[in-house]
Specification:
The chain is mostly helical. It has a three-stranded antiparallel β-sheet with strand order 1-3-2. The longest helix has 23 residues.
């Protein structure tokens, strides 16, 4: 038993908060999903994802690797070849990522409509 109660889920030292902070990174979910079909090279991920710099992708991969979600495999070849793949732990995130993607597909227009809507007039507080 962890000693955390239901109300403690997002305390600073709670595993739930660590998980949220890890996947809340702008590129983490996109990279994890990009690796969901099997091992991929760095350059292939750049092309697949689009809009991410090599430096940021490298930082994201290192962070995901350090947290046990991604495995880096360097082959002893000339020229050198490096591939990234999900670990079994990383694979457990694919279904939740898919669910979030489906939610975004179903509700994305409503979110954009709310973003572009006129702000409601709020009565001034006394």
């Amino acid at each position: 038993m962890s000693g955390f109660g239901a109300h403690d889920v997002f305390l600073a030292d709670c595993p739930g908060r660590l998980a949220v902070e890890l996947i809340a990174d702008k590129w983490a979910i996109v990279v994890l999903y990009g690796l969901s079909e099997g091992p991929v090279r760095h350059g292939e991920l750049i092309e697949m994802i689009g809009g991410v710099s090599r430096k940021v992708l490298t930082q994201t991969l290192r962070r995901l690797e350090a947290h046990g979600l991604v495995r880096r495999h360097a082959y002893a070849e000339v020229p050198p070849r490096v591939e990234y793949e999900l670990t079994p732990l990383g694979t457990t995130l694919i279904d939740p990522i898919h669910m979030l993607t489906e939610w975004a597909r179903a509700h994305g227009d409503a979110v954009l409509d709310a973003l572009h809507a006129e702000p409601e007039q709020v009565a001034p507080r006394d």
